[in-house]
Amino acid sequence: MLRSACRRAGSRIRTCGDIRRDFATLGFALLLVDFIFPAQREHFREDFYFWINGAPFGKGASLFGFGQSAEVVIKLDDHDTRPTAKIRNDDGTLETHYLFLDGETVSGTVDVNLKKAGVKLEHQGIRIEFIGQIEVYYDRGNQHDFISLTKDLARPGELIDQRNSFQFEFANPEKPFESYMGTNVKLRYLLKVTIVRRLTDIVKEMELIVHTLSSYREEMNQNIKMEVGIEDCLHIEFEYNKNKYHLRDVIVGKIYFLLVRIKIKYMELTIIKRETVGGGANSFNENETIARYEIMDGAPVRGESIPIRLFLGGYDLTPTMRDVSKKFSVKYLLNLVLIDEEDRRYFKQQEVTLWRKADLPLRRIVDGGAVALPEPASPELERSVDEDDRGRGGENGVGDGTVACEGI
Q1: Which among 191, 203, 114, 209 has a CA at the least distance from the CA of 160?
Q2: Spatial separation of the C-alpha atoms in residues 132 and 145, rounded to whole Å
């Protein structure tokens, strides 16, 4: 009924031409829908805006006097040379966006093109925002903006020219976290242009991808070596060459069997990503197996040594992220799994730190435009395993020096 009334009103406007009176009638009808019929609000708004800005008012005419909505285009100054990167979307597909690093200036042009020549656009102001945002999927209505910078492009007024261009620049904004798309949370950066209007704003967004780069001294990257086992059944020694790996690194290690009294069918190494959302009693963990590498097929004998070489470059990995804005964390575990002939599983988990290495030597801008190489990250920045836990083998759910066991 409301839709047909709106269409009849649009037809009467076209015939009688009494713009002001019928605009008040339609505006009052919209208010009634907002407050009395909330369930029909969105459907009626769509028809309302269509009949205001669309064909019922004749070619070149509209209720507001500026025709159809304008088209907004955001263009970066260095879009021709700016590198790009891919990130996984909510539906699992890969999207490509421009890539930025922490401290890099974000500048460009906002083009506002009117769709009808000779028809002005009235607005209450035009602004652009640089936003860093965290969204938890189970609480989508409550987004957390850890960065929000705003630049006014135009004061309230009218756009008369069909093509309008506005320059913007966010000089060296802080980008403390890496862009992330997880199972229950996502972190993104975006440029958002808003043309403020009386009824509905015109909004245009452009997503950006941010990578955080790190470096570590060799003396900080210690190897991991442990002896674990089940009393009188199994005793093994395993070693990894590092406790910190960059995303294209190679995990090198070996497994040495000191005592074997159970019939092992095969052994594998998996990389587990553990995403933790929230904190304290309200935290929620989500585990995802990123990589699975078969180390051995068949029963080992005492004294046998098996090498490990796992290339990380072919897997979808992100850097380790710790307590990001007190919202979430991401860490990685190396999970050594042994399965016997009765399909019982024995496993041992060890946390490692993943970090992103620069393709070129890291640079930072200093006063006067000079470029200097940064110092390696300090030991206080990140730590893969607590000093007290380095000899205990991380998390196993059973106890120190004991291989966790399922099915016994």
Answers
A1: 114
A2: 6
Tokens for 235, please give them: 């005793």
Cα separation, 95 vs 207, whole angstroms: 10
Closest residue by Cα to residue 357 from 393, 398, 317:
317
| Residue 95 · residue 154 · CB < 8 Å | no
* Residue 382 phi, psi dihedral angles, 5° rounding: -145, 150
Task: Using alpha carbons, list the distances in angstroms from residue 333 to 171, 208, 342, 347, 397.
Answer: 38, 29, 26, 12, 13
Q: What gap in Å lies between CA 41 and CA 34, rounded to an integer?
A: 6
Q: Do 50 and 167 touch, CB atoms closer than 8 A?
A: no
Whole-model pTM? 0.70
Cβ atoms of 352 and 393 within 8 Å: the answer is no
> CA-CA distance, 165 to 57, in Å (whole number)?
29
CA-wise closest residue to 89 among 316, 290, 248: 316
Provide the angle, in degrees to the nearest 10, between the axes of the packed helices 2-16 and 41-53. Answer: 20
Place of tokens 């950066």: 189
Contact in structure between 122 and 66 (CB atoms under 8 Å): yes
| Element (DSSP H or E) covering residue 29 | helix 19-36
- 7-38 pLDDT, tens digit per residue, is 444 444 444 445 445 555 655 655 655 555 55
Amino acid at 319: P
C-alpha to C-alpha distance for 130 and 169, rounded to whole angstroms = 10
SS3 167: strand
Distance, in Å, from the CA atom of 399 to the CA atom of 395, rounded to the nearest integer, reads 9
Distances (CA, A) of 294 to 254, 306, 309, 396, 407: 13, 11, 11, 20, 21
**Could you report the per-residue pLDDT of 201-224, keeping only the tens digit for each?**
999 999 999 999 988 877 778 888
Report CA torsion sign: 195, 201, 202, 204: positive
- Helix (H) / strand (E) containing 351: strand 345-355
Evaluated on CA atoms 88, 89, 93, 94, the torsion sign reads negative
pLDDT above 50: residue 388? no
Distance of CA 284 to the CA centre of its chain: 18
Please work out, in degrees rounded to the nearest 5, the angle formed at the alpha carbon of residue 47 by the alpha carbons of 44 and 50: 145
Average pLDDT over all residues of the chain: 77
User: Residues for the chain: how many in total?
Assistant: 408
Q: Do the Cβ atoms of 34 and 41 come closer than 8 Å?
A: yes
